[in-house]
Structures are given as C-alpha cells and as structure tokens.
Amino acid sequence: MSATSLAHRVLLHHPRGFRPFRGTDLFERIGGQATVDRFVDALYDGIEQDEVLRPMFVDSLTAERGNQKLFFGEWLGGEPRYSDTSWSSLAHRHEDLPITRSTAGLWLGHLRHALQEAVASEGDRSAIFDQAQALAMALVNTAPTPRAAKGTPVSRHRSSQVAACSTGGGAAGAWMVKRARDLVQRGDAAGVVRALKEAPDLVNRPIFGAALIHVAVLAGHVDVVELLLKRGVDANKPHFLAVTGPFARVLFVTPLCAARMKHRATVEALLMKKGAKDDVLTAAFLGDVPALETMLAADRSLAQATDPAVDALDITPVHHAVAGGHVEALRALVGQTDEPLKGSVRALQGAAARDDLPMVELLLEHGADATLIGVGRWVMHPKLAPILAGRGASIDSTGAWIGHCCTGNQGRKDDPEYVRALLRHGARADARRALGTLSATALHYAAKAGFSKTIEVLLENGADPCALDSRGATPLDWLDQSAKSVDKAKVRRLLSPGPAR
After folding, report:
1. In this predicted model, what pLDDT tens digit does every residue of 344-388 receive, in sequence order?
2. Using an 8 Å Cβ cutoff, are 419 and 428 in contact?
3. Cβ 464 vs Cβ 454: under 8 Å
4. Could you tell me which residue, 142 or 256, shows the higher pLDDT?
5. Which of 270, 462, 469, 500 is an S-S bond match for 440, by CB 3.0 to 4.6 Å?
6. pLDDT per residue over 204-215, tens digit each?
7. How far apart are CA 185 and CA 38, in angstroms?
8. What Å distances lie between residue 444 and 403, 427, 432, 479, 498, CA to CA?
9. Measured on CA atoms in the order 408, 412, 416, 418, is the torsion positive or negative?
C-alpha cells in the first residue's frame, strides 16, 4: 500500500461511500432542507413509538432530531452544516449500541415510511432508501439477540454498561474498556492479557483495539504495544486525540503518527516492522513538509482527501495541519487545490483558537467564510478580532454564546472581559439559551454559577434581572440552585431591584 492511500485508516466499511449524493441535484429536487426536516421528523416520530428501537436512544430526541436534520441535509447533497459542527464519526457514534440486522431493518422500515411521507418521487425515494440501506447494514456490529416469546427482539439500552457486543454473543462493557485502558496506561501487561481473555471484543473490534494501542503508544509501553499487535490489533487503525475545541473527537491519528508525535523511536520502529503506513494526514499533522510535498506531487487530490476514519465528516489534511500548528504544511496543502476548501469553517475555528494569525489569513485567502466562525475567544484577540470582524464574523443573537461563558460547566470561571468582547461583537445581553424545553437568559445561568462580575457586565448592557425563564423562574430563583461555594449574598445584592442593588 503506497503512502498516497488512506485505506488503512478505514474503521467503518461502507463500499458505496459516505457522500453518495454530493454533486447531484437530489437535495434541491426533493425540496431542499424543508423536505429533509419533514422526513427526519417523520422518521423520529416512528422511532418514538418503537418499543425495540426507542430504548437504544437518549431520553429526549429533541437534540437528536436537530442533528439528524443537519446530517441528512448534507448526506443528501446540501450544505456541509453537519461536517462543520458534528463532534464524532458514525462509527464512534454507534460503537456503544448493539446493532443487529434485525434492528437495522426496523430503523429502515421507519425510514421507508418517512420517505413516503415527505418525498414525492418514487425514483428519488428508491435512490435514497438504497443508499441508506447500505449505510445501515455497514453499522451492524452484533449477532441476533435472543427472541422473546412473541418473536420480538430483546432490546438493549444505550448505557454506561454497554459499549458493544461481539458477533459471538459476548459483551465488552464500557467499564471493561475503561479498565483495559487503565491497565494499558500503567503498562500492566499481565493485567491486559487477563482483560483481553475476559472480553475478546477489546481486540476483535477495530475501534476498541485502536483505542488500546493508542494509549500504549502515547505512554511508550513497548511491551504492551507488542502484546496488542500479537493479539491481532491493527498497527494502522487510528484513534482520536484527546483535544478540545473544534477538533475534539474528529482529529484521528494512527499509532505511527502518535509514536512520532511523542518521539517514541522504539515504538515507531516496532510499528514499522509490523506494517505501519505513512499517509498525508500524518505528514500534515506533524508538519513534515518534504514528505507532504512528495505525496502531493504524486496525487494533488490528497490535499483535500477526506479521512475515512471520520467517515461522514469532511476532515482533511488541512485540518490536521491546523491542529498540528504547521502553517507551512497548510500552505503546501492549500496551494494544491483550486476548489473550495472542505470543512473550512472548522479549520478557521481551529486556527483562531490557536491565535494563529498567519493561518487565519491563509484560510481566509483561500475562501474560508468568516461569517460562520461562531462563538470563540477570537473576539478578545487584538489582531484577529478586527480581521475576522472585517470579513463579517460576529456573534449571533441566538444565545448560543451563553453556554461558553455564563455557566460553571467544564471548569469555566467568571470571565467578564470575555463577555464584554462577545457583546461588542454582536451578542445580546437579553438573549436566551434553549436546552430542550428550557429557555433562560444569560443572567439565569450566571446567577446559578455565581459569576458576579459577569452579572455586572450583563446588567450594564441592559439585561433584565426580573426576566423569567420558560418555567416562570427568575435569576434569583436559579441562585437557590447554586453550589455552596457561590457568594449568594453578593449575587443577590446585584440582582435585587431598587436601591438594595
């Protein structure tokens, strides 16, 4: 296999490809996003009532419906809104679900009905169903489950206890995967052997094998890497890097790339001996410009090749160069294509998150759309902010920004300057953040988090301390739900009406 091939990175085998309608007029012909929305609503209306399928989904399907509208819109040939925002591949989104041919068939039955409800042409319905059927069957990962007395398949819930089921009927629970990863991290080869004996799926399923060897390579445990390879783990299957921001769970690296990134020369030599392959994504991420130029000279199309590990998303060498922080690698890539950059929004977000002015300018020069960059700390950068704003970047009025600075989730701290910068670039102090059926203002969230300085900024910019959330509660009511560490007296003084404030 040559270095220009990416076949070794495939995790989900789907011979028909993940973008069957790209470049066709199907999306427009069936009625665009409005038809897709009706189709997805009909599909999920069916799933809501399905006693077998419904337990395999999350408690509320509201967010899932929205995500699937983006997915099917792009999959049927529309704008790449799903690729720009999604956080995971199809293979990983379904890894903890035991999908049999029977359950896939049930889902396809609802899909067929939804197509009949929303799509007028029989020819279009058949074309869509044919491709969807191939994709659904590619996701099958489990042998048939036992059947109940009336012939109904026994359902399995998505939960922390079920990560996957093997075709032999055994199961590798999420706890077993975590335990195996911990053993690998510690370099406990004997413990790893016991874990593999107890749960063969840890090496039989490419996704789990890739996760284990990824940990072993990063930790530099040569003996564990060799053990996993001997047990059949593929030396080439990639796993996502533990990063945050636009590249979370979509930036996949092979074991070879991980070894080079960590300068694990002994591990690298072992992997090469076992058939590890070089590729354009590895060269881009590591900033190996000579190797990159050699590969691109052999095949210019590699500059925008989609990583098959992330299947339905457009993650290309451009994203890898940005994530690795290598502007010269990025320059070599964008210079090889006259086409619009795939996934340019995510690439621009990644470059801005790195505060990398040369990268941002290079992406803008090659067509990245600043108007879609969304919320980010770019608003605080003295050089990036004017450039992006000059290209139309702004914070919309939907309230999505609230989750980035007004909640205490993910270790966030009170950051009034960030809030001021967001407000300067279009955020509204009276905006509301909607989560399912709950809608609340920035003051509600800031009060619960105890962010007194943020509260002051919001009040200075016209936020209403008496605003009600969708359930009739005020910001002061939310203060009652705050942690013990919150200075409730201070927040209460800020939010109380009249002179007391």
Report:
1. 999 999 999 999 999 999 999 999 999 999 999 999 999 999 999
2. no
3. no
4. 256
5. 469
6. 888 899 999 999
7. 47
8. 11, 16, 9, 8, 19
9. negative
